[in-house]
Design a protein that fits this description.
The chain contains six helices and no strands. By secondary structure, it is mostly helical.
């Protein structure tokens, strides 16, 4: 258990230092998949009530998302889309409004 706690702390510290999950996996000798490391990091840094498994999009959210995609005639990067949704004041659920800034900060 002690070793796992140390590995978890190292994972959080390495991500905070700006390392990618692939770099963390190699440098930290993790045998887990990169997606597992992302999930573990999220579980360690985000309160459970803010870890939404199935966020629901409203019609206005979808409209804003589609209008962003039409601008460049291709799907935008998720981070840009998230910022635009927030700027357009789309009807994002309150818990998403609280968690989105945390997600953007950790990207």
């Amino acid at each position: 258990m002690q070793a796992q706690n140390e590995r978890d702390k190292w994972l959080v510290d390495a991500k905070r230092a700006g390392m990618t999950y692939q770099e963390i996996r190699k440098t930290g000798n993790f045998s887990e998949a990169v997606s597992t490391l992302r999930g573990r990091h999220r579980a360690l840094t985000t309160p459970k009530e803010l870890r939404v498994r199935k966020p629901e999009w409203t019609k206005k959210d979808k409209t804003v998302r589609c209008s962003i995609a039409v601008i460049k005639d291709q799907p935008p990067p998720h981070r840009k889309a998230a910022k635009n949704v927030m700027e357009e004041s789309a009807a994002v659920h309150e818990r998403e409004r609280r968690i989105l800034p945390l997600r953007l900060r950790n990207m």
